Predict the structure.
Amino acid sequence: MASSREKYVFYFAAILFILAGGVFFFIYGRVFIRSIRSTTWPAVKGKISSSQWRYSGHADGRSWADIRYNYKVAGKSYNGHYWTFRLIGSDNEALSRYRKGKTVDVYYSPTNPALAVLEPGIAYFSVVVALVFVVPFVSSGLFLVYLGNHRPE
């Protein structure tokens, strides 16, 4: 058996791996579930209020399509900014499709009308992220727990 100190090192490392897996699951799992639900959301008409490139301002030069729109549900006005829940999409095409002033279909959550999207659909990329990150991190954490309990002296 491993000494108490070695066990704690294994357990600490295991907790870090499992927490990292949990963070990935929390982030990408939510996106995936939201994307599935969006396929059944009702639609209302809305209007694009802005459509432009947004830049991160960092040295990495990241940019994305920032599309904002207004819509009403049951007489209450809302502002949305999700054009898709999918993580892979063509921002160039989205900017050309969703020009300022254009009337569009806005799909909103019936339980939270402030949550809306222009293109509902399943974010399969989130499943890939889960398989690539969540499963290995959690598995490694569990394996470290096993090693902490079964390590020969």
User: Anything to note?
Assistant: Residues 4-38 form the longest helix (35 residues). The chain has a mean pLDDT of 83. The chain is about 45% helix and 25% strand.
